Amino acid sequence: MPMLNLIQHHPAEGPGAIADWATSRGLTLNVFRADLGQLPPVSAAPVILLGGPYESNGGPAWLEAERQWLASSLDQGAAVFAICLGAQLLALSLGGNVRRMDRTETGWTPVTFVDGQTLQVLEWHEDAIDLPPNAQLLASSDQCEQQMYRVGPTRVGLQFHPEWTAESVATLNEHFGDESPLPRGQQGSAAYATVFGWLQATLDGWWSEQSTARSALTTDHGTH
Q1: 209 with 79: CB under 8 angstroms?
Q2: Using CA atoms, how far apart are residues 104 and 137, in angstroms rounded to an integer?
Q3: Distance between CA atoms of residues 112 and 210, nearest Å
């Protein structure tokens, strides 16, 4: 069964719908808790980076270790699918920048993709990404232009949270209490299903691209 590494940064922010996607595709998800000092070995293995309530260019000491690990893994050719904090870490590693926004972007938010498609997604962030060199902007919201970007076919960053399910949000609300701006109760059940459909298709595309890239890399190495 193929393996996929996933980096989690906070006890209340797990893989959510990504776990459902992985199971349905026959993938084993290896979850590493970076906040507990867990990271996979540096390699070209594909990885998903989740979000978390930390500053991407500051934060606790373990986050510096992850930044170094990510830079080394990117040097090895790793494919990365990164969400919120993860997308900020990816942008920084590739030469972009992260800055504080005028106001926090929270709750259900419409994002518009370059093909004109619009999707209601969940947001909770106060920092924004200035894209790294050679990045392609894929989606924007009214308040934050850099909602989704790609650097090459296998490195994708999302500022929003398509992995959050109703259960994920309930866990976050329980953990953060009044600090959480996320919906309560049964708000948005249809929207969760729509976002999950989008997430599955997007992850399928990313997984296919990284498989192709790894196969090409193996072939190239075999000819030297």
Answers
A1: yes
A2: 21
A3: 25
Share of the chain above pLDDT 90, in %: 89
DSSP 196-208: HHHHHHHHHHHHH
Are 128 and 53 contacting, i.e. CB atoms less than 8 angstroms apart?
A: no
* Domains, in order of start, for the chain: 3-221 (3.40.50.880)
CB 157, CB 196: distance < 8 Å: no
Spatial neighbors of 20 by CB under 8 A, at least 6 apart, are: 165, 196
Mean pLDDT of 42-70: 96
Q: Which two tokens stand for residue 20?
A: 């459902």
Q: Give the three-class secondary structure for 156.
A: strand
Closest CA to 98 of 133, 52, 132: 132
